[in-house]
Amino acid sequence: MATPSVDVARPDEVGTGRLEGASRMRVILIILAIVLATEVGTYYFTFVSMATPYIGADFPQQSAGQLTWMSTLYAIVGGVLVPVAGKLSDRLGKKKIILACLGTSLIGSVLVAVTSTWPLMLLGRGLQAVAFPAIFVSYGLIRDLMPRRHINMAIALAGGGTGVGAVLGPVAGGLLTDHFSWRSLFWFCVGWTVLTIIPLAILVPETKLRVKSRIDWVGAVLLGAGIGGVLIYLSQGVVWGWASLSTLAWLIGGVVLLIVFYGWELVTPEPIMDPKLLRTPRFVTIMAAAFLSVGIMQGLGYLMSYLAETPGGAAGEAIKRQVVEGAAQQAAAQASQQTQMNISPSMMMQYFSVEGELPGLNLTLLQFTVRALLAMTVVYVIVSPLCGWLSTRFGLRRPYIISPVMFALASVLFALYHENPLQLALIAMIAGIGAGAFLGTLPNMVVESVPQEQQGISAGMYGAFNSFGTAAAAAATAAIFSAHPLILHINAPGHVEDRKLDTGPMAQLPSESAYIDAFYMFAIAAAVALVLAVVAMRQFDKPATGGFEV
Assuming Cys at both sites, which of 74, 153, 315, 474 could form a disulfide with 129, CB separation 3.0 to 4.6 Å? Predict the structure, then answer.
């Protein structure tokens, strides 16, 4: 049965089908159904980073730079579709859009799991990315359906619910890749989607809120092309060269198209993004805080994963020795050919040495998840709803301030202490407090900042800034890693050279100084977020109401 459209008046006067008389059990079941179904978007992001080495073995003709397109394409398509899906959800219904996104991603998962051709692999990844907007549309659906007294807690639970994917993803991925091929990861996504989309369809009602509007397709194309250009630059800059003209062309073209997009949104009668929101200081502050917070959270996750899983200690020294032995063997072969004498590689080893310490912990993916990531995730799954509860008493700003403070503290501690798994786990718990405070407050700030009829649009903008933050964190981390590789010193008679060891686009064996610089970079980003919260978020000092007048 079609849901009747309603005219939009004041946010607290619109009939949305709010479940004010629903039992607590029904409220919990609805939140669980929404959160579990949208978790698949987290798996798509986690699994591809885990599976890239195995996928590369099955597609040997693809370079490391081409393999990174699996992540880049997901970020581009997901980031572009978030505002489009947000606008469509206001017009057609949020539940319908969530189901459509998950159904489309299901097709992409099947395609990725069965294909043996690279173009179809990329097509499948693009279809999987359609699940990304469902996460942000779900915030608006929760806002429309939940009893007013539960809105802030429910959105905080939805934000912290991503911890399920953050933990279960690596655990399931580690177990599956230990016993099956990388394709099993995406069959897991197929099964997860089928099992969770059914309770979503049955248990969760559709919102009655409709905004009569047309889709701004010109704006969508301009926004998509602009975001795509910038994300391609951020994602591929390490591989192609940050300052090369061909790489800068993507950045310049993307920025120009975004400027044209903003100009178009000013004159089109029904913009896909309301320019008034982009000129509202408090909304812009939220977007900036989201960009920084998600970047820090994802960036610390990248660094923890690389630190845990790369070889260090005795294993690191063994790798350095292998590099020296390989260089000496190659030099001995060249010298033997030139002198017509049999020169032993052992004689050449004295001329080679490797600079840089490898601080890795030699953990498997499963060990890293159990020893460190699990502690972080359990903490932020608890902290997120707690901050939602605190916001109804003290406002959203104070709980959010906890986030940059904890992120900054964790980043500095990681830079100073990263020698063993226990240190990693303890500091990860501090980072978990920061993640929980971020996920439990910023989505609620979006809800509090805009009228009900703009929830879809605002969620789309929030999702786009999340996508930018994730891509920027990955790009910044890759840039620092590439700038601090291991150095092979050659000090032979007549040949003195320092040669950077090429370990791929993400420099998977960076020196210890790379980790230290990256951790301090995220500490600085957290300090900027703290200044934003202290100076520009005072309007969120009042108790949160879920966007309703009290």
Answer: 74
